């Protein structure tokens, strides 16, 4: 009997520890107050995905950018010339219409109950799942923030960041190297503009040379896709081999000198991040590599719990693009 009590105490402690890490969030938060919420979000994302599968990467990036500024509080969804989404690092964000669509439908079913921040977190999960990636239970219960400032978006990760800078930015949010590499793996379904990496192809060190970390055969391929004086807004897949599928191809590309963004390829030049990339790419013999489809959900749950607002903090917006 005493042993059973001790066991229950340990289990309770573990549960409380997990809840503490999640900032008060829990799966199924709306099971009673709005039981159809997750189904509505899913069907909305699926509807948009069928029309344009690239919106999946947009939703995933939208959630990431939201969490890295002010925490995961939907602040990136606010419209306005001085709002977060108007900051330079956010100008290419996509998927706002999906969140607005889902919010409109959720409001019909359960007015004033489900936050925009939670809809965004759920939509990001559904986007990954629809791209043949893993699914997971999203802890919910976030409330929407009342602050959205473009000036606060300056600390978002940049494609120019070294591993040291990336590590610093992620650590500031409570994320370690494993989280960093795992979350960057979301680029397996992303795209970017030529203008954000073309300098690597023609004038990397202002001497007219290309970035030496790019595989020579891949360099010519990229130069064909992005001519020196071509359209800088032309879109190129961040995972050149399987841009529509959420898989480990991205990590194999980084291993082989085929990372598109400088910040991605730099993961191979740091001993710690290189080891994680090797694991995901399946190139360490004799070791059971990390399973990306298992580790990505863990990293997403951890990231989506950054500085969340719960309880009476924040608000539940009626319209995601403006404060109540």
What's the mean pLDDT score? Answer: 91
Structural class: mainly alpha
Shape: globular
Give the low-confidence spans.
7-20
Share of helix, binned = 40-55%
Strand content: under 5%
Structure summary, number of beta strands: 4
Computed over alpha carbons, the radius of gyration is 21 Å
Number of helical segments with 4 or more residues: 13
Quaternary structure type: single chain
N- and C-termini, Cα separation: 53 Å
Strand order of the largest sheet: 1-2
Task: State the order of secondary-structure elements, H for helix, E for strand.
Answer: HEHHHHEHHEHHEHHHH
Question: What kind of sheet is the major sheet?
Answer: 2 strands, antiparallel
Describe this structure in words.
The chain is mainly α and 324 residues long. It has helices at residues 2-21, 37-51, 55-67, 96-109, 116-130, 163-171, 177-184, 199-202, 216-225, 249-255, 262-265, 271-281, 292-303; strands at 26-27, 139-140, 191-193, 235-237. The protein has a two-stranded antiparallel ribbon with strand order 1-2. Helix 2 (37-51) packs antiparallel against helix 4. It is globular. The termini are far apart. Residues 7-20 have low confidence and may be disordered. It comes from Melia azedarach. This is Peroxidase. Keywords: Oxidoreductase, Peroxidase.
